[in-house]
Amino acid sequence: MAEYRPNEIEKKWQKVWEEKRIFETSDDKSKPKFYALIEFPYPSGEGLHVGHPRPYTALDIVARKRRLEGYNVLFPIGWDAFGLPTENYAIKHKIHPKKVTERNVARFKEQLKSIGFSFNWSREINTTDPEYYKWTQWIFIKLFEKGLAYKAEMPINWCTSCKVGLANEEVVAGRCERCGGEVVRKTKNQWMLKITEYADRLIDDLDKVDYIERVKTQQINWIGRSEGMEVDFRIKNKDDVLKVFTTRPDTLYGVTYMVIAAEHPLIEKYKDEIENLEEIRKYQEYASKKSDFERTELSKEKTGVEIKGIKAINPVNNIEIPIWISDYVLMSYGTGAIMAVPAHDSRDWEFAKKFGLPIVEVVKGGNVEEAAYTDTESGILVNSELINGLEVKDAIEKISYWLEENGLGKRKVNYKLRDWVFSRQRYWGEPIPLVHCDDCGWVPVPEEELPVMLPEVENYEPTHTGESPLANMPEWVNTTCPKCGKAAMRETDTMPQWAGSSWYFLRYLDPHNKEKLARKEEIEYWMPVDWYNGGMEHTTLHLLYSRFWHKFLYDIGLVNTVEPYNKRTSHGMILGENNEKMSKSRGNVVNPDDIVKEYGADTLRTYEMFIGDFEKSVPWSENGVKGCRRFLERVWRLQEIVVDGDEYTKELETVIHKTIKKVSEDYETLKFNTAIAALMTLLNEFNEIGKITKADIKTFLILLNPVAPHITEELWEILGFNGMLNQSQWPSYDEEKIQDEIIEMPVQVNGKVRGVIKISPDATQDVAREKAKENESIMKYLQDKQIVKEIFVVGKIYNIVVK
Ligand code: ANZ
Ligand code: ZN
């Protein structure tokens, strides 16, 4: 027996698979299909990280299993390559981002290939390829034509260090998700996408898909559907109202003041009447430096200023109340103004305490001098004329009706979800394919002129006015209006990093199509994606965005399913040996290349799947890697104990059938670690017996193949099995054979043994009763009788008393 040399074996089989196009899809559309998808990587300069192969191996296992089960499998790969990291690198090293991308892609590709993933490489896509982004631009134009893309002056999140606008999703704890820089508010003219128009469908259609629960919950919370009332508060001595959004109209009698956001238009409107305008201006200035995150942080000290000179009137009792300005009310939610009920809202309570504003209890149950009483389940309304004595739920209903009847308010659904800020003032992204004409306004570039190519520039840095470097290229910017032919200007903003990934799963279906985004018959056959695995961090970004785009494409008749992904799962992170995040600065990053070189790709794959619960984060362990290598060495040595025979060894039959069942089920339910453990147990059984048949090892090799495809393929060849393992068949198991040992249990009727039943030793009384009824000799004594008592001793005896 030759030594186990993974590096030789692995290269050999990778070459064979590629040459024979083993992992390419079949054109035979009568076959059942399976579309497995992983989140295509961002080809960063650092190369692959050991975190990447974890989800890739998992879906590679599922894809390989499905092929062996006879499915036509699509398991594609590509590159999500626009965006800041590459651009920042390009700026720093003065290399064109296209070059940087090419280099990074080449390296990623080599790394991925060395691990032996069964990707369909002929369908490789790259979001920065003009042939690809042509269609990203095309979809944008469709959105624009349907009124779902619009330009608006918006206070946006602005990263002071990247000098770029960010979506809410890209701001984490008040900082830029990319660079960690400080994020402030800045008002800019931005392209926006109306994802809010799809808010309800994005919630409701979650019922149609099989996503892990935490993904569903996070999306629902992020969309944040909230049912309440918009209530009008008259402004004293004016023919004008201040609208507020509240989920608690029952507390209207407890309103002691109002608060508007720092950017609320009321200030501008009444600036001549406001007595302390200067003070207000100062406060506005102070608030503008804070992100929404900082403003809404619960723990922070409340700040604010009373607006002197204007007052509001409470619609339920006509009491005059002051209006304050404070940053704890956001302009971007509801109406940008609130009715403050300090007795029953914690933020209002803190504010009232700080500024000495009155606190009026309207729901009984707490001590509102000590804290806001917020329990809505058990409270009863007091001090509230129209609704006194009612429970909160009923009070809300009654007062809402009253407000509507009197034209003082209307029911309203609000969402936390905001429209998607879709402009970036950066170079390395898809140009937004619109032209601005003084006469015609915004006009899309005609379809036959797509793609609008990203021009070569000398300098990729954003301009200091915050515009994209494209704005510095008059020869690119100046063009003619596609509608009227007059001089016009191109939009210089580019699309965000998330654009290309919002539809990439469709391009895989027909990646080389020059006429269309993808052919209808391909879309109809392959969609939806059957199983999509990706990071939890994308739940409220990419996953939500792509569901939105897909629904839009559905609405314009381009795709045939309302949801793009049937199933969504998510993996845990791989941490450093000491349980902390792997990072360059900590110097604890493990490079998969080193593991492949030293131990082999099959060891890396086995280890990443054996490392622990797939959904949990786990620390890396070099010892664990070594253990997996030893396991594969033992698998390799199995060839020495194989004898001829096309049936399972009798003593191994049960355990083999059980292992088939366990491994088959575990691969489907992300329990890769326990599947591998079962194979390790089977291997031990093989070695204990010391002699196994070809049938025994054949099944073992197929079961292990999805995890360790190279060594199993090599052993398959050494042992002289027909064809290639990767084209063989997944084994099936026999339910009967996996029953544990069967015992014979005596059954007594009125104290006499009337027969025996064959039953498993841990069977329950119900099973025993069924078995007894199937047994003729016992049944004779039960017929036409009534069972009055049963005594059942598990695994021992079954006593029946009848009369
Ligand atoms: C009065 C009230 C009394 C409220 C009470 C709550 C409890 P959700 O569920 O998140 O939709 N609110 C409304 N607009 C706001 C804004 N722009 N910035 C900050 N807070 C705002 O929350 C709705 C509640 O959040 C609203 O109901 C309002 O306070 C506040 F005992 O109105 B409530
Ligand atoms: Zn024009």
TrEMBL record:
Annotated protein name in UniProt: Leucine--tRNA ligase
Positions that bind ATP: K584
Family statement drawn from the similarity comment of this UniProt entry: Belongs to the class-I aminoacyl-tRNA synthetase family.
Residue ranges occupied by any Leucyl-tRNA synthetase editing domain in the UniProt entry: 221-403
Enzyme class: ligase
Residue span(s) of domain Methionyl/Valyl/Leucyl/Isoleucyl-tRNA synthetase anticodon-binding: 650-767
UniProt keyword annotation of Nucleotide-binding present: yes
Biological process annotations from GO: leucyl-tRNA aminoacylation
Entry annotated with the keyword DNA repair: no
EC number: 6.1.1.4
InterPro entries assigned to the protein according to its UniProt record, in alphabetical order: aa-tRNA-synth_I_CS (IPR001412), aa-tRNA-synth_Ia (IPR002300), Leu-tRNA-ligase (IPR002302), Leu_tRNA-synth_edit (IPR025709), M/V/L/I-tRNA-synth_anticd-bd (IPR013155), Methionyl/Leucyl_tRNA_Synth (IPR015413), Rossmann-like_a/b/a_fold (IPR014729), tRNAsynth_Ia_anticodon-bd (IPR009080)
Entry keywords, A to Z: Aminoacyl-tRNA synthetase, ATP-binding, Cytoplasm, Ligase, Nucleotide-binding, Protein biosynthesis
Gene field: leuS
Gene Ontology MF, one: aminoacyl-tRNA deacylase activity
Subcellular location: Cytoplasm
Domain Methionyl/Leucyl tRNA synthetase: 40-187
Reactions this protein catalyses: tRNA(Leu) + L-leucine + ATP = L-leucyl-tRNA(Leu) + AMP + diphosphate
Organism: Tepidimicrobium xylanilyticum
Biological classification of the source: Bacteria, Bacillati, Bacillota, Tissierellia, Tissierellales
